[in-house]
Amino acid sequence: MQVKKVKISEIKTNPKNPRLIKDDKFKKLVKSIQEFPQMLELRPIVVDENNIVLGGNMRLKACIEVGLKEIYIVKAEDLTEEQKDEFIVKDNVGFGEWDWDLLANEWDVEKLDEWGLTIPSFSSDDIDLNDFFEENNEPKDEKFKIVLEYTEEDYAEVTELFKNYSGSKEQIVVDLLKKI
Questions:
Q1: Which stretches of 107-151 are DSSP H helices?
Q2: Gap between the Cα atoms of 28 and 155, Å rounded
Q3: For each of the chain's 180 residues, which pLDDT tens digit applies?
Q4: Does domain 3-96 have CATH number 3.90.1530.10?
């Protein structure tokens, strides 16, 4: 497959694409294209033999918003209708997940936000130890049994440590268990 530069007016958005980027996230996509247009050649929009987008529908809309006259495409020809549908979904499915510890420790959080990555943040208000227990006060998970040994006073002390804590909810639980 060959990357080609074509007039943006030749490419059609795909009305079957179920993936949307709205509001602030779309503005961030537009901004990223304005600031780093070379990325469009490195990650061209995938179209079928009729120039209908299979991968990159929202990038195309952002390119139109930016006012680009030409874009880079790769043409995926000889696909069945089912393969086209499969491509659309698989191109938009997030199979992976972020390594929040690595991002927090090795990356500039402000840059990540600028680039469109939504960084979750949690505080002690998000921690409710009742989330870890069944209605009969049995722990939902074996590793939380130690929490049963703590008093309300200990609970208040531990949750105080996590005020304004930023990181994934999973990491808060890990850090909480380290403290107890």
A1: 109-114
A2: 40
A3: 799 999 999 999 998 887 888 888 899 899 999 999 999 999 999 999 999 999 999 999 999 999 999 999 999 999 999 999 888 888 877 766 777 777 777 888 788 877 777 776 655 565 665 666 666 666 666 555 555 555 566 666 656 655 656 666 666 666 666 655
A4: yes
Chain centre distance of CA 10: 30
Domain boundaries, the chain: 3-96, 100-108+116-179
Classify residue 50 by its DSSP letter: T
- Asked if 22 contacts 14 with a C-beta cutoff of 8 angstroms, the reply is no
Question: No. of H helices and E strands in the chain?
Answer: 8, 4
CA dihedral 159, 162, 166, 168 (to 10 degrees): -50
Residues 28/58, Cβ–Cβ less than 8 Å: no
Alpha helices by DSSP H, listed for the chain, are: 23-35, 38-42, 57-66, 81-92, 100-106, 109-114, 152-161, 169-179
3-state DSSP call for residue 30? helix
Count of CB atoms situated within 10 Å of the CB of 73: 25
Query: Phi, psi (5° rounding) for residue 74?
Result: -125, 130
Q: Contact at 8 Å (CB) between 74 and 51?
A: no
